[in-house]
Design brief:
By secondary structure, the protein is an all-alpha fold. It has one domain. Helix 2 packs parallel to helix 5 and helix 3 packs antiparallel against helix 4. The longest helix has 36 residues. The radius of gyration is 18 Å and the shape is elongated.
Length: 141
Amino acid sequence: MSVSHRLVIALRSLLGLALAIVAIPVVNLAGSWLSTQVFGRPEGGDLRLAVDLCWVFVAGFTGTWLMVRIAAVAKTAHAWALFALYLVVDVLGVVDGWHEFPRWFTLGILMLLPPQVWLGWWLAWGRTRDGARAPRPIRDD
């Protein structure tokens, strides 16, 4: 493997990580804006927190999907690395918000982490490994 090929692999991994980190707050903020402006959900209350938790889930699997899709090699390892990063951030967020939010919300952030990463990985890579999106064979008739 040439140096330029290794550089491309490393740059794709860094690009995937950067896009995942940017996508999470962008999707979350867009969801918050949609909830308030389009769907008319006022801020505050349990229903709004439940909607916000759904947006956290969507943001998490979007970031994972981007990272895994862009990574050139070791896509599952990239998903695990992102899972570890998400876990650190989520635990810090739960510790910080433990007294500000209801328990179901803070625990929901942690409990939704594995499905977020799995769904993003599966949509980007897992389906192709099962043959669901395998290319059709070329016929030489």
